[in-house]
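Journal club side-thread
Mid-discussion, someone asked how the predicted structure for our own chain would compare to the paper's figures. Pasting it here so we can look after the session.
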Amino acid sequence: MSQETDHSTDIDAHEVLGGKAHPTKMHIAEGFLPPAHAVAWTIAAAPFVVHGAIQVVATVKRQPSAGPLLAAVGAFSFVMSAIKLPSVTGSSSHPTGTGLGTAIFRPPVMAFLGTIVLLFQALLLAHGGITTLGANAFSMAIAGPWAGFAVFFALRKAGVGVLPAVFALAFVADLFTYIVTSFQLALAFPSAEGGFGESFVEFMGVFAITQVPLAIVEGLITVVIVRVLMQVASSELLNLGFLKSREIPAGAGEEHRSSDREEVQR
């Protein structure tokens, strides 16, 4: 939702999509959800976020060199999800940027990082909101990453290479975020005529036109970044379990290994 407004409980999907209650986008705006829905989604998201915070601390303690990589994937998600692209349906869409962190650190860590990203966007960019933070975190930082990681895990188990699996993860995480957002909006604003089902289909129709190609682009960008990281941070990715030894590109990390040898010789 692009503007904050006071919504009564009798608003339905037709009014939201028709412009009476402002156009839609993935980050649900401050005050848009009914209070009961906002509280429910916050309660649903809280355990994932707390568990994610514990996992972040454990990761840094176990591998201190992963700290800069954690910051990098968080920054990537912040930048990607802050980009708003207009839709031909009158809504706006944007990437989520959660695929990178999910692939490298797994969904629990991304649940915490994604929530921090959403919090800063709400405070600094007026993108999303505090009362809707739980709902936005559940869709973008929890549901999307877990759906994408399930596909990533299955593909890797089937012997698919890391880059195609990363593309699928980012693509699915992006699309599933919008599916969950549509679910949240339809649940809050069911159609007066067709109820939840009709409302859900209408919200999905709004998002689908721009989000499918956008998810493809996000997948390609994520693959490019992972390819670069495989060259410059192969040891960290190997220690985190993201890469297997045979998947390290030839020549990757040579500068670091040379520096280590020189340090030992001194």
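Post-session note: Residues 1-11, 19-24, 255-266 have pLDDT under 50 and may be disordered.
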